[in-house]
Amino acid sequence: MKFISEQRHDDGVLEREFTLGEIPGTLWTPASAEAAPVPLILMAHNNGLPKNEPRLVARARDVAARGYAAATIDAPGCGVRPRSAEADQARADLRAAMQAGAPADELDGIFERLVGPLVENAAPEWLTTLDALLDLPQIGDRVGYSGWTALGIRLAVTDPRIAAAGLFAGGYVPVALRAEAVRFTIPLLFLLQWDDEGNPRQRALDLFDAFGSREKTLHANLGGHVGTPWFEAEDAGRFYDRHLKS
């Protein structure tokens, strides 16, 4: 891991850009990490969004201000990394099908073609990044996850170091990953936008029911995909405090 830039914000949070082989990423750490290691939260966007997407950066800085390290990367095909022709074609097909009012089974097929490979390509790089982050003296051994549901399922069922997860019930979760949800047993905070235009409500509720966690909480708010109320950050902070700081 090579740090290539850094910026200290007024709230004491240190923001550092890094590269890890071909993987570009950003790490935010609170001032307290200079005295003692702090828990880490991995923060992931989906569907090709870059690591500097404003909503993700705002969440990461808020998490760091609460005493955590936060990290994100540009996975394959995201941000400045070379895009996949197959993924771009699937996105174009999806837009066209949605505009044409295609039936759900046709949309499902396109989503499978798009999201499945995104997760398969992204998961190994996130785990490689986690290995490198845990070697840093500022990072403790407690790890959480926040963000993209499909990727969060895969990481949680394959890496026991992830102790708690907050998932956004937006986008599509492929059939294979929905089947893996029963093996997802860590504490879960599941955020659902009731009127999400890109996420069928019943499918999200069925997925929540399928998770194998003994402690799982569903928060549902009115509004569309990007309308998650900011006060949910307060509840998420208490959720991570219970499982990563206690």
List the helices and strands and how they pair.
Blueprint: E1 2-8, E2 14-20, E3 23-29, E4 38-44, H1 54-65, E5 69-73, H2 85-99, H3 104-133, E6 139-148, H4 149-158, E7 162-168, H5 175-180, E8 188-193, H6 201-210, E9 216-221, H7 232-245
Parallel strand pairs: 4-5, 4-6, 6-7, 7-8, 8-9
Antiparallel strand pairs: 1-2, 2-3, 3-5
Provide an overview of this structure.
The chain has seven helices and nine strands. With 246 residues, the protein is of the alpha/beta class. The chain has a single domain, classed as Alpha/Beta hydrolase fold, catalytic domain (Rossmann fold). Strands 1-2-3-5-4-6-7-8-9 form a nine-stranded mixed sheet, with helices on both faces. It starts with a strand and ends with a helix.
Short structural description:
The protein has seven helices and nine strands; from the N terminus they run E-E-E-E-H-E-H-H-E-H-E-H-E-H-E-H. With 246 residues, the protein is α/β, with parallel strands linked by helices.
